[in-house]
Amino acid sequence: MIVLRIFIKKHILLAVCGGIAAYKSAELVRCLIKEGCEVRVIMTASACEFITPLTFQALSGHPVQTQLLDTEQENAMGHINLARWADNIIIAPASANIIAKLAHGLADDLVSTLCLAAECPVYIAPAMNQAMWHKPVTQNNINILRLHGFTLISPQEGTLACGEVGWGRMSDPSSICKVLIKSSAPSEPYLKDMHLLISAGPTREALDPVRYMTNRSSGKMGYAIAQAGIDAGANVTLISGPVSLSAPTGATLIMVETAEEMFQAVVLAAKNHQIYIGAAAVADYTFDELPQKIKKQQPNLQLTLYKTKDILASVALLPQRPFVVGFAAETHDLVRYAQEKLIGKKLDMIAANWVGKARGGFEDEQNALQVFWEKGSSELPMMNKKDLAVKLMTLIFECYQKKRLLREK
Ligand SMILES: Cc1cc2nc3c(=O)[nH]c(=O)nc-3n(C[C@H](O)[C@H](O)[C@H](O)COP(=O)(O)O)c2cc1C
Q: What is the DSSP letter of 153?
């Protein structure tokens, strides 16, 4: 078992477009780094005419990408990886051209393609001549972007690079920095001082020294819940099976491999936490691990599987039990199985989701949940797992509070 305290810096991806204000974005990189962010920079071809990639490389400490089709970069961090890497994207300066392209879903260069591929919040800080800014077509495009969830950091009024006076000057780097830093802070720390235990990901059950049995869980849902808990101010312990995800900044991460290791880690930690959310896909059965690799000698091979310990039910039976939230992933009879599990395992709440083709759930970026508790239920429709985690977290907290108030009466 490996225990790690995770402090990963906020990842900000800065996209620089072609305009005089591009020089101000050098200052923005410095501001963001001073605030503890890790910054990567991408530039449009026009932006490179105004300021060199070398400036941003030196300030950010990372190579700057300027091309969509870059064979060397595609091996290391291609545009999709970079989109996934970012917690926030800021386009500064955002040219009238990129605003128009994004509003209409164009993807003909690195910046526009990456923004289309991104699922994180995207901020735009426009900078342009006042006539360009006031043109109905630009204003329409801005409105479209707002509707699509982009956040506008409005330009300011003042003397513009072209000598005219009016609206169109890019917001100050320090103001843009403040918006980005604020956006990463918890909106309302309703879980402040609370201790949240989350188990996530799959387990691996070894058959012999080279083979194991596992499942399709990616850990994304559990990790998104951990992030939502941290954003709401909680102290989060994340017990994770083997996944290829970065743990959220601030979480205490405990890495395990087998169902038995996960059981031991969760049961040990549970009494020190007020809420336990079991989002891991724990193997129901395991093998007696063979000391040597099985050879291909017999035509058929029979293996005996042994039932693993039930983590949720065991935590729910602890004398000092936390509020216990289980997950149910089902291919059929979802509601019936979920309700049986809620009652049978004495859980406080259960979040059920369909698994299987085109239904979200395992390995997918999206999911939908049907949540049940003793006196109620709620349906959370299909959405990305980060947003779903935030909604689930508030629902869990509401139920937890109700139960606590009832107990105190
Ligand atoms: C000297 C100069 C300054 C420019 N300044 C701006 C500007 O501030 N805002 C803008 O939207 N376009 C400006 N442009 C036009 C853009 O550079 C042009 O539309 C370009 O195609 C933008 O490409 P990009 O969006 O891929 O960066 C300027 C052009 C020149 C030659």
A: -
Tell me, using a 6 A CB cutoff, whether residue 151 lines ligand 1.
Answer: no
- 14 CB contacts (<8 Å, ≥6 apart)? 25, 28, 29, 32, 39, 40, 41, 42, 56, 60, 89, 90, 92
Q: Which positions are annotated as active-site residues?
A: 162
Nearest CA to ligand 1 atom 14: 19
Do 252 and 237 form a contact (C-beta atoms < 8 A)? yes
Does ligand 1 lie within 6 Å of residue 88's CB atom?
A: no
Mutate to test the pocket of ligand 1, among 14, 17, 99, 124 (most ligand atoms within 8 A of CB): 17
Give the C-alpha distances (Å, rounded to integers) separating 75 from 12, 78, 81, 89: 21, 7, 10, 22
Q: Enter the CATH code of domain 195-408.
A: 3.40.50.10300
pLDDT value of residue 322 = 97
Q: pTM for the whole thing?
A: 0.56
128 lines ligand 1 (CB under 6 A): yes
Is 96's C-beta closer than 6 angstroms to any atom of ligand 1?
yes
Mutate to test the pocket of ligand 1, among 44, 97, 159 (most ligand atoms within 8 A of CB): 97
Looking at residue 332, its pLDDT comes to 84
The CATH H-level superfamily of 8-184 is: Flavin prenyltransferase-like (3.40.50.1950)
Give the 3-state secondary structure of 191-238: CCCCEEEEEECECCEEEECCEEECCCCCCHHHHHHHHHHHHCCCEEEE
pLDDT reported for residue 2: 57
Chunk the chain into consecutive blocks of 10 residues (it has 409) and report each block's average pLDDT, rounded to whole numbers.
Answer: 56 96 97 93 98 97 90 64 91 98 96 93 94 93 85 84 82 91 67 95 96 94 94 94 90 95 97 96 95 92 95 96 94 90 96 71 73 89 85 92 81
Residue 186's nearest CA partner among 120, 232, 250, 229 is 232
pLDDT of residue 164: 78
Distance 138 CA to ligand 1 centre (A): 14
Domain ranges of the chain: 8-184, 195-408
Work out the end-to-end distance of the chain between its first and last CA atoms, rounded to an integer number of angstroms. 41
Please determine whether the domains at 8-184 and 195-408 fall in the same fold group of CATH: yes
Instruction: Compute, in angstroms, the gap from residue 112 CA to the centroid of ligand 1.
Output: 15
